[in-house]
Structure formats: C-alpha cells, structure tokens
Amino acid sequence: MEATGSNIVIDPAEDWTMFGMRSVRASFDSTWMILADRVMSPTLDSGQVELVRAQMLAGARAVRDAPDALVSYLADSAAFTGHPYQLEVSGTEHSLSRISLAELRRFREAEFVTSRMLLVVVGNVDSARVAGLVARTLGRLPKGNYHWSPPPDAGDRPSTLTVAERALPTNYVRGYYTGPRADTRDYQALRVASAVLSGRLFNEIRSRRNLTYAVEAPFVERAIAVGGLYVTTTNPDAALAVMRDEIRGLQTGLVDAEPLARLVQGFLTEYFLKTETNAEQGDFLALAQLYRGNHSFADRFVEELREVTPEDVRRVAEKYMRNIRWAYVGDGKKLTRRKELEF
Predict the structure, then answer these.
(1) Is 333 a residue whose pLDDT tops 70?
(2) 10 Å Cβ neighbour count for 76?
(3) pLDDT of residue 4
(4) Comparing 7-140 with 160-341, is the CATH topology the same?
(5) DSSP line for 57-110
(6) For residues 172-206, b (16+ Cβ closer than 10 Å) or e, as one string?
(7) Residue percentage of the chain with pLDDT more than 90
(8) 3-class DSSP state of 19
(9) Interval 35-63 mean pLDDT
(10) What confidence score (pLDDT) does residue 339 get?
(11) Considering the domain 160-341, what is its CATH architecture?
C-alpha cells in the first residue's frame, strides 16, 4: 500500500459503514484488489482481533476522560433512548468485550452480501473498468435479500437532563432534539434554521456577552436529522437563558429575507469547500442515494437550500426545536436554574 501511494479507510457510522480506498489512477486496480480481498476474505486472526479489541476498549474508556466526548455521548444516548440511534457506533466496554471471534466470522458470512452494498466511485477512472473489477471480486459475493430502509421515527420525547459531575474550570452543555426525515422538505429547512441559530448564538453568547469560547447549534446529518445546542461556559445559567430566548425568537418572529439569502449563500460556499475532495463527493452521492432513493437528488441540494423561506425557518423552529434532551458535564452547583433547560 505504501509503495502505491494508496490507502484504505473504514468508517462505521449510524446509518452505514463505509469501506473506502483512495489511490492514484495508475494503482487503482491493485488497490481495489487489496480492498476487495479484505472485504471478501478477511483473515480475522485471533491475535489481531484481540489487538484491535484492546485498542477499541481503550477508546471506549477514554470517552469518560474527555468532557467534550462525554457530553456528546450522554446527549446522544438520551436523545434516542430505545431507538437504534442510541447504540454507540464504536461500541461500549460491555459490547466490545462480549464479541467472540466465532461471532465475527458468522457476521461476515451472513451480512457481507451485495444487497447490503452501495458502490460509489468518484475520480478519473472509466466505469467499464470499475464494472470489470467488481464482477471479478465483490460481484461474486452472495446477493442476499437485504433492503435498506430508514430507522423508525423517534417520536415525541420529553425534555431530560443528564448530569456528570466533574471538577472542571468550565462546564460542557449539549442538548439534542429530533428533527425530520431526510426525504422531507423540512430537512433542508432545519439545516438552514440551525445555521441561523448558530450565528445568533455566536453573536449573543460569545461576541456580545463573552460567556464562552465555543457555542453552536449543530445539524447532524442522518436518515433522521438531529438538531442541537452546544456551549462550554463558566456561567451555564446565563448561556442557557440566551439560548432559550434565541430559540423563542426564531419560533415567533421572521428572519429578514435578504440576510437569509446571504446566509444561505455563505453556507453553500463553506459547505462545498468542505466537500471538494473526491471522498467527500462520494459521501454526498451516497447520502442522496440512501436517504432519498436516487443519487441525482444531490444535484438539487443548492436549489433546495435557496428555496427555504423565512416562514420555513419559523415553522421548523417551532416544530422541532423543543423537548431537548440535555447532557451536562461539570460543576452541577453552577446549574441552578434548571427550568431554563425546559424548552
């Protein structure tokens, strides 16, 4: 692999696991054969399995040591209790320690079937060349009868608060709420509304009041969107009060159309700067294919964002930005006005 200037990446995520490769055109065929061999005939040697298990267990334990990782883990777990998204993608100490080598081998035999696979290739390579490589390798795997479908709707869930006491100089607060499915019009509207809210929170909490160095309203791309709030602060009561007021402002008022258009244009510029690599473009196409049933929907992305109106922003803010499930890592005594979390 080093001699060819190529590499293979594996990235498990909530909705799928990505096996990918990056290579120059001259070594595409040889790199493909390595990737296909690892997918079709993994050694699963007991010594290597135990080494990887130990590494993953160390990573699972480290979540408790990093406040940012811990607050994200707690908020995500609370947001999807009893739902498939509650499962930790990288595993927990309990789940990782229980997986046997025999179970790994059974899983590979049962689940590595072509009906579970979506292949996306982005780059300077002929499609007929790719088809030939696939026919000789992955195309020989069993087809199976799998059909991908989005997870069930998460439904309405009450607001909750999970506190992890830590003696820290600053406190970490993250909350998540359930958004719309990716195949609905609200998906892009909530993406834009989250960007509007992020800008307002930055201006009010960081720039104007100097309550934090990090604040945002993230939008998490999944088959079911997740919206959220995040801040690190020494004064959580004050920061959360501003968050509540800014959300209410979005829910009851209308953003001006001209600034909204400028925000969308700026967002598009930033988004496409992040997705200018072949790998990111491959992910972009895969999202459209799996979430919406056709990769050509990727071409509608810009148009759909520009179609979002001030009324859409208010509507999705009112519909989704509520019943937030919170996680707090830090000094619990500083979170005195817990009613501020009930929005």
Answers:
(1) yes
(2) 22
(3) 84
(4) yes
(5) HHHHHHTTT-HHHHHHHHHHHHHTTTSGGGS-TT--HHHHHH--HHHHHHHHHH
(6) bbbbbbbbbbbeeebbbbbbbbbbbbbbbbbebbb
(7) 80
(8) strand
(9) 93
(10) 63
(11) 2-Layer Sandwich (3.30)
| Residue type, position 2, single letter | E
Please identify which residue in the block is written with the tokens 């830090």.
330
Q: Using the CB atoms, write b or e for 50-59: b if 16+ within 10 Å.
A: eeebeebeee
- Rounded Cα–Cα distance for residues 210 and 233 (Å): 9
Q: Which sequence spans correspond to the domains of the chain?
A: 7-140, 160-341
For 70-82, write each residue's pLDDT tens digit.
999 999 888 888 8
The pair of three-digit structure tokens given for residue 103, joined into one six-digit string? 């179970």
Mean pLDDT, to the nearest integer, of 4-24? 91
How far, in Å, CA of 68 to CA of 221, rounded?
A: 19
Q: Is 300 helix (H, G, I), strand (E, B) or coil?
A: helix
Render pLDDT for 224-252 as a digit per residue (tens, 0 to 9): 999 999 999 999 999 999 999 999 999 99
pLDDT > 70? residue 340: no
What element of type H or E holds 143? none
State in Å, rounded, how far the first CA of the chain is from the last one. Answer: 52
Which top CATH class is 7-140? alpha beta
What is the rounded CA–CA span in Å between residue 220 and residue 326?
A: 16
